[in-house]
Amino acid sequence: MWRFGIYVALGGVVFGAGIAILATFWVIQWRRKKEISGKMADLELQQLGLSIRTTSEKVSFDHGSRGALDGPIVVKSTPRKRLVETYTIEELRKATEDFSSSNLIEGSVFHGRLNGKNLAIKGTNTKTLAKVELGLFQDTTHHHPNIIRLIGTCSAEGNSDSFLVFEYAKNGSLKDWLHGGLAMKSHFIASCDCFLNWNQRLKICLDVAMALHYMHHIMIPSYVHGNIKSRNIFLDEEFVAKIGNFGLPNVAEDDTELSQSWSKGYLTPEYTPQGNLSPSIDIFAYGVVLLEVLSGKTPITEEKGEGRVWLSEKIKSIVQADNAEGLSEWMDSALGEDYSFDGAVTLANLARACVENDPSLRPSAGEIVEKLSKLVDALPEGEQFSICESSSKPLVRAPKN
Hints:
Blueprint: H1 2-55, E1 57-61, E2 73-77, E3 85-86, H2 89-95, E4 104-106, E5 109-114, E6 117-125, H3 126-131, E7 150-155, E8 161-167, H4 174-178, H5 198-218, E9 233-235, E10 241-243, H6 257-265, H7 279-295, E11 300-303, E12 307-310, H8 311-321, H9 324-330, H10 341-354, H11 365-377
Parallel strand pairs: 3-7
Antiparallel strand pairs: 1-2, 4-5, 5-6, 6-8, 7-8, 9-10, 11-12
Transmembrane segments: 6-28
Pfam families: Pkinase (PF00069)
Domain Protein kinase: 4-376
């Protein structure tokens, strides 16, 4: 009997041990499956996020949260598409009062009003129209607050005239404001006494840098503008800067000697007409724009005893001399002394880096955004966006209804 009892006890122990082993094995397997399931879920979320970022996100920049490079970027998912409209020539004639001279902005660009919206309507030809990268405007993925948006096109039948319809920039181009002539004053600006103050200029420089950062680092594949100049930087009614000619072929805008001279002032030393465009080409041209903002001078000027002087070369001698008085004398006289000299030194050094002969030494658009963000954030509260010498908005003609 006692042997039988031992066998029963041993059997119970073995049975219990087996149950314990099976329970332990089941718990391990359950935990392993849970971990694998969690990892798969994370992977699916990552893949979903990547898909959204690369196909249907709208990337915009929040000017209220500048600082670190990733600070200004706010990503919003917008699945709806924004198609480029197709207009008839009759619609554009009506919008521009039959392309009236009173609606002429400059060159072949007219102000128009259609369906309650202000538009900029630019005459072109069918060959140029065929080269426009319409795919960049077919959805909200490539809509950025500092890039002029192409709203529609018009290809007139029976002749070579075609039209591009753009978002309207109420305050003209940066060139108009910096270089005195104010080519658009007959339509935009009724007083030539107004000018861009220091705070505005810093904000405009940051706006343009944000657009370049978007083109060079956010867009997939990256996009090189290839025609950055003050003439292609436009200002809306709140003086927010927007880069124009985005998605357009790089063609000569006119044949005047002045325009050709200015265009040459933006070209990099390594530029060749048939060469590949790289982001460093945009950075060099942007550096020249910074120099225009600082000095109020055109990219190429005529100076007594020096002949033709390139701004991109002039800044090198000024920075190298390390002469504060020389920089002060070179600054735009319209500013008077109403600017931060330390800020001007920072901007001059940044511009100098942008126009380096060696493309590898030029800063990226992201680095430029970081430096300019600090300058703008350092402006006294409430003074970042004041307008003109009397802190009042310039006299701008109201668009016709």
